[in-house]
Amino acid sequence: MIKRIKKLLKSAGPGIITGASDDDPSGIATYSMAGAQAGYSLLWTSFLTFPLMAAIQEMCARIGLVTHKGLAGTIKTHYKSRIFLYILALLIIVSNTINIGADLAGMVAATKLILPVPTILMAALYTVFITALMIYFPYKKIASNLKWLTFALFAYIASSIAARMDWGSVIYGALVPHVELNKETISLVVAILGTTISPYLFFWQTSEEVEEIQEEEKTKRKHIIVTKHELKMVREDVNIGMFLSNVVMFAIIATAASTLYVNGIHNIETADQAAKALEPIAGKLSTLLFTLGIVGTGLLAIPVLAGAAAYAIAETFGWREGLNKSFRQAKAFYGVIIVSTVVGLFMTFSSINPFQALFYTAVIYGLISPILIAIILVICNSEKIMGKYKNTWITNVLGGATFVIMSTAAVAFLITL
To answer: In sequence order, which residues have a C-beta less than 8 Å from that of residue 143 and are 6 or more positions away?
Structure first.
């Protein structure tokens, strides 16, 4: 079993890396706030989102495998509405840049718990470090090394076990959906859905599958044709990544509920408050583990955010793109990565509370995800585009449910504004 896990982590594919980056600083902040504000009552969302996000990410992966194009490239090739594509690309780059800024702010806030470094200096160091890594090293190599930092998140799993939980309430909250029809709870649900089923992951997953194919074609020196075996491997990769992501999500909500909520801490405004959720298992080390988790997932997620924006823009305008290409080969593509990361850096200089910013980026994703999910469903049901690999009825049920649930949550949020 241990050997199998080691082998799995060593050969982490786009699905597993996507799952790891899904629990980014925005996710950690959102799940912590959900547990602190609503206790155990929103635990059921982790069971709901797993099959939904796995279905959507599998569709995205399949689009990449079958078309050999990213999501924006597929839309551009088969649908002639350029204005719609431009609006879509603009939405992605704006929302991703906001998320980059929020993630950087969260990383800096967490780092300052253990290192008294000025905010501007720490944010600048992280920005330079991340952009340099993306320019000079393949992302898969970066992820294979940085993913170990995210293991600090598993402290939430240990902490959820060590904390004195009301297990009856945990089981009830996990199995019985409950939503109070007020602005605060609806905002939490939209944020949870948005940070879990995020638009940037759709673009990232599709494009990374294309890069995997390109690398394989380069190695084997032949054109790769998609087979049922490859689709099965991709499906397993996606399911494992999404499952691990949701296990951590469940643990963070449960831990925050059993430590913060029960002690009357319902609003998380500082990194120190969020770190307190780990005290049952880590004690004085809780701050260090929390910081490692935030920084580790941030270092994984920010390249995904910047990369997803770059893929969307490059495919829209027909630029050369890909993290498997050098800076000289794809200057405009890497230019988008640099600009979006630097603009995100400037956002950290504002007076916005980092943890509130992380939460509201999740809300933004929750509002725009239904649009992209509808597009993905249309593409995956097109025999012209997907051929014999178009959606099955089960995939359509899960994808349709995702669209309806996220659209309903988004409408409810807008009504309660």
So the answer is: 12, 17, 20, 300
- Residue 226's SS3 state is coil
DSSP letter, residue 193: H
User: Is pLDDT of 48 > 80?
Assistant: yes
- CATH number (domain holding residue 320): 1.20.1740.10
CA–CA distance, 337 with 315 (Å, rounded to integer): 14
Rounded Cα gap, residues 174 and 193, in angstroms: 16
Please tell me the predicted confidence (pLDDT) of residue 218. Answer: 65
Instruction: Supply the pLDDT for residue 2.
Output: 44
Rounded to 5°, the CA angle 403-405-411 comes to 95
Q: Are 378 and 203 in contact (CB under 8 A)?
A: no
> Distance of CA 118 to CAs 121, 124, 132, Å?
5, 10, 21
DSSP SS3 for 306:
helix
Radius of gyration of the chain (CA): 20
Q: Identify the pLDDT of residue 176.
A: 87
Asked whether the predicted pLDDT for residue 273 surpasses 60, the reply is: yes
| Residue 104 belongs to domain spanning | 2-415
Confidence of residue 201 (pLDDT cuts 50, 70, 90): confident
Rounded CA-CA distance 175/146 in Å is 34
Total domain count for the chain?
1
